[in-house]
């Protein structure tokens, strides 16, 4: 374990590769396939240019012009954040619209955040959280009416608990 938290380990599978590509596109400004390939290699995923090209096509990744004029890959309606930038205003606004009607309570417990929803809504709420690049959040687990958000540490869980509550209260 590093000082910044646990490192993500992925199996050598197509699904894991696609997930790594999606994560890289969500957390970095990727301007070329060779840049993306280097990021994947750093994660232990070696991929040919042809396979990477097919993967990007299958994911419907497109090159789009960012506010600063840079042309970078993006997937679907995702908001490409600057290096080190968290969810961003647009992502927070989208999350707030969803969470406002679906979150009934939020509490931190150790490095976990427990989010309660009406019956049947937890998987949708978890999906909304998972689709954002949220610093300090490793992922979610959802049941029928409860989402567990796994954070890198206890302090992050307290911060994200307060943050999610504020988004749900807007």
UniProtKB/TrEMBL annotation:
All residue ranges annotated as the Arginine repressor DNA-binding domain in the record: 13-76
The record's keywords, sorted A to Z, are: Amino-acid biosynthesis, Arginine biosynthesis, Cytoplasm, DNA-binding, Repressor, Transcription, Transcription regulation
Localization per record:
Cytoplasm
The record's annotation in Gene3D superfamilies points to: 3.30.1360.40, Winged helix-like DNA-binding domain superfamily/Winged helix DNA-binding domain
Q: In which pathway does it act?
A: Amino-acid biosynthesis; L-arginine biosynthesis [regulation]
Q: Name one GO molecular function term.
A: DNA-binding transcription factor activity
Domain of life of the native organism = Bacteria
Chain ranges of the Arginine repressor C-terminal domain = 100-157
A GO cellular component annotated for this chain's UniProt record is: cytoplasm
* One GO process term, biological-process aspect: regulation of arginine biosynthetic process
Name the InterPro entries for this protein: Arg_repress, Arg_repress_C, Arg_repress_C_sf, Arg_repress_DNA-bd, WH-like_DNA-bd_sf, WH_DNA-bd_sf
Described function:
Regulates arginine biosynthesis genes.
Q: Which family is this sequence assigned to? A: Belongs to the ArgR family.
Annotated NCBIfam families: argR_whole
- Protein name according to UniProt: Arginine repressor
